[in-house]
Inverse folding.
């Protein structure tokens, strides 16, 4: 198995995004550090626009992730609805 991850700045804007990622990836490991939150997952991790919108109560463009994104690891597949990190077998 391979691990993928995404690291976001720790602030009020990312709190619901991190909650959404945790909801959509129940096996992900979330590591809260002083200035960032790193989320690791085995094989793949998905960020769903719809889940984020439910938590923030407004439309959300996945490109808004770029504002608070520190780094990520894995191949990126992105649509208007999902951003998926994975490693090809």
């Amino acid at each position: 198995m391979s691990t993928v991850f995404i690291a976001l700045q720790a602030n009020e804007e990312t709190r619901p995004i991190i909650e959404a990622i945790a909801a959509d990836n129940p096996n992900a490991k979330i590591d809260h550090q002083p200035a960032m939150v790193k989320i690791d997952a085995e094989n793949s991790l998905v960020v769903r626009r719809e889940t984020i919108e439910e938590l923030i109560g407004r439309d959300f463009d996945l490109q808004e992730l770029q504002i608070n994104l520190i780094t990520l690891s894995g191949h990126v597949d992105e649509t208007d609805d999902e951003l998926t990190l994975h490693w090809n077998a």
Observations:
- DSSP finds three helices and seven strands in the chain.
- The mean pLDDT is 96.
